Amino acid sequence: MTITVALVGNGGIGTQDHQSSMYGPAFERHPLFSLVDDPAAAQVLSIAVPLAERGAAIADAVRAGKHVLADKPLAATLAEAVEIERLAAEHGVVVVPAHHQRFNAALRSATAAVRAGRVGLPWNVQCDFVVAGGDPAPTGELVNFGLYPVDVVRALLGLEVRRVHATGSPDLVTLLLDHDHGVTSTIVCGRVPALRDLPPGGLAVHRYRISGSHGVLAVDARKPALQVRTTESNGLVWTGPGTVDALLDVLAAGIASGAGRAAIGPHDAVRAQRVIEAAQRSMETGQPVETGE
Amino acid sequence: MDRIGIVLVGAGFIADAHSGAIDADPRAELIGIVDAAPGRAAAFARKQGGIRHALDLDTALSWPGVDAVILCTPNDTHAPIGLAVAAAGKHLLVEKPLATTVADAQRLARAFEAAGTVLVAAHTHRFYDYGVAVKQTIDSGAIGRPKLVRLAILGGWIWPDWSAWVGDPDRSGGHALHNGVHLLDLATWWLGQEPTAIYARGRKQTAAELRIYDYLEMVVTYADGATAVCEMSRAHRPGSLAQRELLVAGTEGIVEQGWDGESSLVFGEAGTATLPAAGGNGFAKQLGAWLDAIGGAPPQMPVADAVRAVVLGVAVEESIATGRPVAVTA
Ligand SMILES: NC(=O)c1ccc[n+]([C@@H]2O[C@H](COP(=O)([O-])OP(=O)(O)OC[C@H]3O[C@@H](n4cnc5c(N)ncnc54)[C@H](O)[C@@H]3O)[C@@H](O)[C@H]2O)c1
């Protein structure tokens, strides 16, 4: 028995259509899901409506007892995200925000290695998440994809963010995060112009350095990949499953568990949104901002 | 033309790099060596084929043929010894930091200005191959206007024990002034912008009892909105694995050099280590630029930049102490 999915919406921030470019094809090729046309007949709704309408659309789906795969960010405001978290718990449905970068194969094994003490007690993470080309987000890239590296750092450390200082511009921002136990992390996140041999909107730099009391873990999250060079081009070719495929595995497992929860849920979106909003306040005031976590 | 006669002051760790540079430059001659610790100057002099040696600068300044001084003593001695060099009308190449306080840095700048002699601080990374190559790439316009610099110089603990002056903030000025200034100056030089604010975080990783931060993260904001994230570490494990990483993002492209960008890796029984490429001698180029400036050329490391590096280093320590960004004006 496969899980039925209906695709709802083809919008996002600016010109984005992640439904057609990412979620639709991933559901189509995933063995545990089958697409249906009628949302009313589907168990799962894949919701990618424009950001301004997204929170309400997801809340309606949850109230109707549907599981949800939600384009990122889950909602335009923290208040909406918190409400979705509450509703999902009340209705016992699985809501998976598309924070798919944490399911990158290299980052999954990195997270496991940190948890297993391979670098000792981690004390700092440095991350660069730099996209090249594609359409700039009218909201600024902090709102558009800042949550990806924030979510990855939370997953790597298993520690919430207490304080945020941000500098730069919304298109290329530096986030300085403080966690418990004196642990710090730094995220450079943004968009640079299109670069040769990179697909538009592709990641030019995506890396993490986790420093611990007993070692360092350096992760190039553009891999696992092959370096392919031809007379025409020079580029990396992914090996293994993509991050969205892995996200759908998590969604399927969450639904199958019957517990109304998956390995990632609305609380992760709430946590990320708190950091992004604190970063926005920090950019406005020039001062560090507490997240209230 | 007569060779420029140089006295080295401080026969410690870094002195050999300077004497090696002098040996390699036909325009310079090492006249003698000064060190306050009995025996050190004499031993250094013997190694150099029997040059003059002394326990104090005054004696050395009276030797015939002395035009200039290279100062490689602990950081807190740079100001008093440097002022004596200015008063004697000699040129000075002073190890970084120029001084451990902004007031002393400015005092030195004024003294050499008044004496009409050349003062240069040894921000050697400006003369390393990578430092030059990044600067040339940015200045060529290839990546447009630079908006972000990331520079990390990471290593393990290198200072011997609790007696090391580097671990004493009164003597070294703290790690931001001791090593942090290298990165603060380099990133600022690459960007060609004026810094406006610093936000820094520090950590005492090797031991809680340290009096300096062995890990520093120094984030500089510039007048045009650019950002530099500079990490200076003696806290990383394993201590055998020295790493340097850099990324510059501009409006038209990026420049990157990862930890494997210049070095080979040795996978040995004793652990894994990077093996830096041979390449140019930064100390020789630095000496050459100072000699050029003595000859009348514009300095490649202007005094104002050395003062600014001290301003930034002091701001780093203040930001760590307060947990807040610190406004800077050079
Ligand atoms: N440019 C670089 O890359 C670089 C690298 C290392 C050190 N340095 C700088 O070089 C300087 C020296 O560092 P080091 O590692 O060689 O130190 P060191 O401790 O190895 O040597 C310092 C020497 O100065 C002598 N000394 C101390 N006080 C003196 C005084 N008042 N008069 C005469 N001699 C005195 C000491 O006896 C010792 O021999 C410092 O300013 C340091 O910041 C620069």
TrEMBL record, chain A:
Give start and end of each GFO/IDH/MocA-like oxidoreductase domain: 108-217
Instruction: Respond yes or no to whether keyword Transcription is given for this record.
Output: no
The segment(s) forming the Gfo/Idh/MocA-like oxidoreductase N-terminal domain are 34-98
The GO molecular function terms of this record are: nucleotide binding; oxidoreductase activity
Q: Which SUPFAM superfamilies match?
A: Glyceraldehyde-3-phosphate dehydrogenase-like, C-terminal domain (SSF55347), NAD(P)-binding Rossmann-fold domains (SSF51735)
Q: Which UniProt keywords apply?
A: Oxidoreductase
Which InterPro entries is this protein grouped with? Gfo/Idh/MocA-like_OxRdtase_N (IPR000683), Gfo/Idh/MocA_oxidoreduct (IPR051317), GFO_IDH_MocA-like_dom (IPR055170), NAD(P)-bd_dom_sf (IPR036291)
Q: Does the keyword Signal apply?
A: no
Classification via PANTHER family = CONSERVED EXPRESSED OXIDOREDUCTASE (EUROFUNG), CONSERVED EXPRESSED OXIDOREDUCTASE (EUROFUNG)-RELATED
Q: Which family does it belong to?
A: Belongs to the Gfo/Idh/MocA family.
What is the protein named? Predicted dehydrogenase
UniProtKB/TrEMBL annotation, chain B:
Domain of life where this protein originates:
Bacteria
MF-aspect GO terms:
nucleotide binding
Q: Which residues form a coiled coil?
A: none
GFO/IDH/MocA-like oxidoreductase domain: which residues?
133-255
Boundaries of every Gfo/Idh/MocA-like oxidoreductase N-terminal domain copy: 5-121
What would be one Pfam family of this protein? GFO_IDH_MocA_C3
**What's the protein here called?**
Predicted dehydrogenase
